[in-house]
Amino acid sequence: MKVFILEDIEQLRDHLATQRQVFTPQHTEGSTELDWLPLTHKTKSITSAWPVLPTYPAKQFFFPDREILFQFDGHAFEEVLPEVELQILFGVRSCDLCAIAYQDQFFQQDPYYQARRKATLLVGIDCKQPCEGGFCPTVNAGPFIRDGLADLACHQREDESWLVLAHTPEGAALIQGLNLQTADPNLITQRSTEESQIAAGFPSAVHIEAGIQRINQAQVPAETWQSMGLQCLACSGCTNLCPTCSCFTSYDRPIADGIERERCWDSCLYDAFQREASSHNPSADAGQRVERFWFHKFSDAYVKTFDRYGCTGCGRCEKTCPGVIGVHSVMKRISGTL
Ligand code: SF4
Ligand code: SF4
User: Fold this and answer.
1) Cys staple from 236: which of 24, 99, 267, 293, with CB 3.0 to 4.6 Å?
2) Which among 227, 207, 203, 218 is positioned nearest to 335, based on CA atoms?
3) What would the pLDDT profile of 184-236 be if each residue is shown by its tens digit?
4) Distance CA 23, CA 49 (A)
5) pTM for this predicted structure
6) Which residue's C-alpha comes closest to atom 7 of ligand 2?
7) CB 13 within 8 A of CB 24
8) 48-65: string of b/e by CB count within 10 Å (b at 16+)?
9) Domain range enclosing 150
10) Which ligand is nearest to the CA of 235?
């Protein structure tokens, strides 16, 4: 890994824009929320102190909510692979980078996901303060960027200059031409120390730790899940905004000379999610569906496959759930710390 000093982060951003289309979190007109939007001359300046994540994670860049998979004219199937312009996502936070790495594994064999992913480079920014509802340190997903999860990782220093860590050859190639000075290796050690200090400043997450333990020891009574199931409106807000949720369904629709198959996001909180052709439904009860969702987020069983929990501590589900059964509410209930 090569590390450089950068005086002005916007110099880097504008340099990247000369090479590829750049998307970065921005406020849409009149909104306090951040959305992923293309960089334009109107894009305002950025800072590592943004206390908020974009409303949507970056998953939609690789796994869009709807896409055509193939067409069939009665004789032959024709795959419809996406044509993606080379792009850069600039300003991805550590929790969302961990989620992208998680989905990279889930969609390893998926040519649609991989076509978009291979056309995209990731530039991350270390978080210097906790965001509302975030608990990334508890699930080893932040606040600073894990090695190898971004092509470039940017870290703001006390004197307002930046460290730029080139984790991949593609990242190193992006900054060629900026003539950046190589950083003193001691600055990397300082960055690690600073991460521990910032992580220590996050609000207590004892309810998350205790909840994880109870889920893995099967100590949550069925009635607790059922009472939370009563609060679920099956709106899919949580699964849509969760950066690691990847469930989809597909359906065929007629076109002029045949059919086309489209896939779209599904949600394990929908009552028919697991319903079989025989009408048997292993999660017919809303409580079972809520339990299933949280088991997928915090079961040790999945750590073997993904090397981490299925929750990266972004807190989006807590903010969006109209039934008040997002991550903090659920983990407080099941850990008995409410
Ligand atoms: S479960 Fe909630 S807190 Fe965890 S990654 Fe998904 S949206 Fe974020
Ligand atoms: S956001 Fe809340 S109410 Fe909506 S599906 Fe998820 S758990 Fe249910």
Assistant:
1) 267
2) 207
3) 989 999 999 999 999 999 999 999 999 999 999 999 999 999 999 999 999 99
4) 19
5) 0.96
6) 232
7) yes
8) bebebbbbbbbbebbbee
9) 2-200
10) 2
